[in-house]
TrEMBL record:
Residue ranges of every copy of the Amino acid permease/ SLC12A domain listed in the record: 108-281, 398-681
Keyword Cell inner membrane: no
Catalytic activity entry: K(+)(in) + chloride(in) = K(+)(out) + chloride(out)
Annotated source species: Oreochromis niloticus
Chain's gene name: slc12a5b
Protein name per UniProt: Solute carrier family 12 member 5b
């Protein structure tokens, strides 16, 4: 037997090759194996030689471990398009040796250092220390550096949780928080990088026009004072900024590789400038530099307003007035009339840099915040000033150019700690990104934080307070304040900061378009797709054009102090979501969350997120709101267009956890009446081609739900699961998308429709989130013999919902119901409230009128009064009840008097009984029971009704039946019509007459649906009752409550 089985293996293997459809259709592209690369014969030989014949059928979808390991080991973490870009460059320039991967130092540490150190350190750090004091400035630096350190810890955890392709922070956030958050934060990060470019360009122009070549100003500042001088400076910034921006954009467009090659030069300028500052601090302890500052009383004088720091000087034993005298007096003579403050106070000269050992630190320890236009005054120096006299000649002093406060300093300073993403943005070029990113980024932040904190203390210990508060060096001959401290020359700082800001601006204009290109190519924001295109080698031309345009907005603002808080908002938002992503992944404990970096904790991530949010509102609450508004709009835009991206993000994990928690809570008990809403199971049927037969059921569901609550669209298909499930499911999803119904689909395949429908009603939903209402269409052709099983199934649905305490909605003439695109400009929704059903009849019209289709319709409520009822009091009570329910409706009480059964009613009842008996008779004939016994026990039909039934029988059977019926017809007619049937038919007829009279023109009639018969003898009678009840009405919605209150008058 073993030999026989072994020898039969080749015959088993040949059968798939003989039948090409044995496996089904293989996938076009496998993530591991190119199935088209080898023929079936090659594969069979491969399996034979490797003992893999047992798994041959799975090889198209499940690769062998050997090929899988080879594929994963050689995985390339370059983004889509990078390889094509490299191939294009190789084709242009010939074959070149492959680029050597970068390590931690060159790939992460130094790029982060270059991006973190920037224009704020050189142009605003000393001013911040002077305004906020050493203590306040240290707090600002510590907060900002702590925020970036905590963010770096979270980023390290995310970056080491698997391979991070090039794309950096955007990739990490989008893959951790999903396309909606990813797109919103990606755009914010892009805008922050773009405005950072504008800030660097403005810093570059400020250094150029104020400290290097002031005479190059197009709008001359000399001779202008106050607002005019400020406006001229801003106009110069705008003109030169636009020129520099255009030049930088052209450089990036023409040769981005030269920008990367110059990066080390710009980095060297930054490091050299910082080293010169530390060298200058050391020198102040030995030989402080001479930078005199002239004070009048305790007020700082403009250096251009005097030649000698004195009122008068002695020349050849003659007292001569100075330029300073002529600035405050009306003539150069000693008897001239001078400014009162000038007369009452002496002129003194102090050293602007007294040195680190001078003890000036104590004076600079606390802040000195100024209003715009206030004069810079030295603390601790006496001044004789009349508080009642106005300040004159204020243009001779150094004035505060803006109103300063603590939160303003936070917003201006924070951009100096951004740039921590530089390493992660280069993840595609790193030798080992999972090792280099955490080490390099944290080391860079530690280094820069140490430099910043030490600079705060050293600036306060070396430089005079009035010089620190002098933003543009107007009191020290127009020198850059930090340059006065540098050694060997202030020009080291001036030129070093100039070139470093130029380099940073170029880096921003290089990085921002690529970030926008990555977002565009992800396809999550449709209107940005055009920016994913570029030159043949992949350069983002259109993205560069948009980046330059947005950057020009920052140039037009022209103020470095105004632009800095803007980019602070966007960077803070980006960092906040990095921390949020790490915290969520940690708390959700997703199986894929296995970062190599172990020194993280969800509490640290939440602390970092809280700091980011706090700093956003501390910097500028209105900028924070605008930034959040932009992010929210992008989020909702992506959500509206439903970006079909499945990235295994944390938001999906939150949704699953929240859903599980909510379902567990729902299990605790039924919802309160105030929380009740229809959770609808819509039962639809399909034809032989798997098309929905009643699509308007979903339209009505959408109008009733308005997208709220649970909707399950279910169908039962007769047949086998393999042949029918997929097509049925696709048909349901397609129809739901067409009708814009938000919900779930449920397909049950069964050997018969009755059991399948019962299973749908029983098992639909999950836990506490189950349907409480079933909607099923009225069986249209139930009177035809071939459709008798359809109405029996319908009645069983009514019985099952009654037993399960589930509400039932039965729309009649469903094809005449309006679609979602139609509008009723007028009309009524009539409610016929015959019996109390828990308030369903009151609630449904209210829900329908929330939809635009039914919004213009008015609601009318009719109730039926018997002979012994007080109709006037009933109307008053009903109006009061509706008032408490907060429902607007017209109320009418209809009086129905007991009367004799009309001839028409009797005839209708008779016909109904005859149809019932003939259907029973035909059913028993199919079961081959004896014909004579059947006619004796069940006959109650007339000849003309019987002949209407189209059942294919031979002529002999028809003749025999008719003869027997004539014998018994007179006796059976009277005996079969019971008192109960006559009463039901009479009620149905009388109600129909009243309803037709009152609601013939109504757009929709809602009516209580009576319960089915307890036994199955009178099922045909029940259907006839409902037919008579709704006869002559266009749209009827039969409503049967679920046995509980669904509406309440209480709040």
């Amino acid at each position: 037997m073993r030999i026989s089985c072994f020898n039969s293996r080749p015959q088993f293997k040949t059968s798939p090759r003989q039948n090409p459809h044995w496996y089904g259709n293989p996938k076009e592209s496998s993530p591991f194996i190119n199935s088209s690369a080898a023929t079936n014969m090659d594969k069979s030989q491969q399996y034979d030689g490797n003992n893999m014949a047992l798994f041959e059928e799975e090889m198209d979808t499940s690769p062998m471990v050997s090929s899988l390991l080879s594929t994963l080991a050689n995985y390339s973490n370059l983004p889509t398009g990078s390889k094509e870009h490299e191939e294009a460059e190789n084709n242009e320039e010939g074959s070149r040796p492959s680029k050597k991967p970068l390590g931690t130092l060159m790939g992460v540490y130094l790029p982060c250092i270059q991006n973190i150190f920037g224009v704020i350190l050189f142009l605003r750090m000393t001013w911040m220390v002077g305004i906020g004091g050493v203590f306040g400035s240290f707090i600002i630096v510590f907060m900002c550096c702590s925020t970036t350190m905590l963010t770096a810890i979270s980023m390290s955890a995310i970056a080491t949780n698997g391979v991070v392709p090039a794309g950096g922070s955007y990739y990490m956030i989008s893959r951790s928080l999903g396309p909606e958050f990813g797109g919103a934060v990606g755009i914010c990060f892009y805008l922050g990088t773009t405005f950072a470019g504008a800030m660097y360009i403005l810093g570059c122009i400020e250094i150029l026009l104020i400290y290097i070549v002031p005479q190059a100003a197009i709008f001359k500042i000399e001779g202008l004072e106050g607002p005019e001088a400020e406006a001229a400076l801003l106009n110069n910034m705008r003109v030169y900024g636009t020129i520099v921006l255009s030049f930088m954009a052209l450089v990036v467009f023409v040769g981005v590789k030269y920008v990367n090659k110059l990066a080390l030069v710009f980095l060297a300028c930054v490091i050299l400038s910082i080293l010169s500052v530390y060298a200058g601090v050391i020198k102040t302890a030995i030989d402080p530099p001479v930078f005199p500052v002239c004070l009048l009383g305790n007020r700082t004088l403009l250096s251009k307003g005097y030649d000698v720091c004195a009122k008068v000087i002695e020349i050849d034993n003659e007292t001569v007035t100075t330029k300073l005298w002529r600035s405050f007096c009306d003539s150069e003579y000693l008897n001239a009339t001078c400014d009162e403050y000038f007369n009452n106070n002496n002129v003194t000269e102090i050293q602007g840099i007294p040195g680190v050992t001078s003890g000036i630190l104590a004076e600079n320890l606390f802040g000195n915040y100024l209003e715009k236009g206030m004069i810079l005054e030295k603390r601790g120096l006496a001044s004789d000033v009349d508080p009642d006299s106005p300040t004159t000649n204020s243009n001779r002093y150094v004035l505060a150019d803006i109103t300063s406060f603590f939160t303003l300093l936070v917003g201006i300073y924070f951009p100096s700690v951004t740039g921590i993403m530089a390493g992660s943005n280069r993840s595609g070029d790193l030798r080992d990104a999972q090792k280099s990113i955490p080490i390099g980024t944290i080391a860079a932040i530690s280094t820069t934080s140490t430099v910043y904190m030490s600079c705060v203390v050293l600036f306060g210990a070396c430089i005079e307070g009035v010089v620190l508060r002098d933003k543009f060096g107007e009191g020290v001959s127009g020198n850059l304040v930090i340059g006065t401290l540098a050694w060997p020359s202030p020009w080291v700082i001036v030129f070093g900061s100039f070139f470093s800001t130029c380099g940073a601006g170029l880096q921003s204009l290089t990085g921002a378009p690529r970030l926008l290109q990555a977002i565009s190519r992800d396809g999550i924001i449709p209107f940005l797709r055009i920016f994913g295109h570029g030159k043949a080698n992949g350069e983002p031309t259109w993205a560069l054009l948009l980046t330059a345009s947005i950057c020009e907005i920052g140039i037009i603002i022209a103020s470095l102090d105004a632009v800095a808080p803007i980019l602070s908002m966007f960077f803070l938002m980006c960092y906040m979501f990095v921390n949020l992503a790490c915290a969520l992944q940690t708390l959700l404990r997703t199986p894929n969350w296995r970062p190599r970096f172990k020194f993280y904790h969800w509490a640290l991530s939440f602390l970092g997120m809280s700091l980011c949010l706090s700093l956003m509102f501390m910097c500028s609450w209105y900028y924070a709101i605008v930034a959040m508004g932009i992010a929210t709009c992008i989020y909702k835009y992506i959500e509206f267009y439903r970006a079909e991206k499945e990235w295994g993000d944390g938001i999906r994990g939150i949704s699953l956890s929240a859903a599980r928690f909510a379902l567990m809570r729902l299990e605790e008990g039924p919802p309160h009446t105030k929380n009740w809403r229809p959770q609808i199971l819509v039962l639809v049927s399909m034809d032989a081609e798997q098309n929905i037969e009643q699509p308007r059921l979903l339209s009505l569901t959408n109008q009733l739900k308005a997208g709220k609550g649970l909707t399950i669209v279910g169908t039962c298909v007769q047949g086998t699961f393999l042949d029918n499930y997929t097509d049925a499911h696709k048909s349901l999803r397609k129809l739901m998308e067409t009708e814009k119904v938000k919900g779930f689909t449920q397909v049950v395949i069964s050997s018969n429709l009755r059991d399948g429908t019962s299973h749908l009603i029983q098992v639909g939903g999950l836990g506490g989130l189950k349907h409480n209402t079933v909607m099923v269409s009225w069986p249209r052709n139930w009177k035809q013999p071939e459709c008798h099983q359809e109405f029996r199934n319908f009645i069983e649905v009514v019985r099952e919902t009654t037993i399960a305490s589930i509400a039932l909605l039965v729309p009649k003439n469903i094809s005449s119901y309006p679609s979602n695109g139609e509008r009723f400009t007028e009309g009524h929704i009539d409610v016929w409230w015959v019996v109390h059903d828990g308030g369903m009849l009151m609630l449904l019209p209210f829900l329908l009128r929330q939809h635009k289709v039914w919004r213009k319709c008015k609601m009318r409520i009719f109730t039926v009064a018997q002979m012994d009822d007080n109709s006037i009091q009933m109307k008053k009570d009903l109006l009061t009840f509706l008032y408490h329910l907060r429902i607007d409706a017209v109320v009418e009480v209809v009086e129905m008097h007991d009367g004799d059964i009309s001839a028409y009613t009797y005839e209708k009842t008779l016909i109904m009984e005859q149809r019932s008996q003939i259907l029973k008779q035909m059913h028993l004939t199919k079961n081959e029971m004896e014909r004579e016994e059947l006619l004796h026990d069940e006959v109650s039909v007339s000849v003309h009704v019987f002949t209407d039934l189209r059942v294919e029988k031979n002529e002999l059977q028809w003749e025999y039946r008719n003869q027997m019926m004539f014998l018994f017809v007179l006796f059976s007619q009277i005996q079969s019509i019971t008192d109960s049937s006559r009463g039901r038919m009479h009620t149905a007829m009388r109600l129909n007459e009243v309803i037709t009279k009152k609601s013939k023109e109504a757009k929709l009639v809602l009516l209580n649906m009576p319960g089915p018969p307890k036994n199955r003898v009178g099922e045909e009678n029940y259907m006839e009752f409902l037919e008579v009840l709704t006869e002559g009405l266009n749209r009827v919605l039969l409503v049967r409550g679920g046995g509980r209150e669904v509406i309440t008058i209480y709040s």
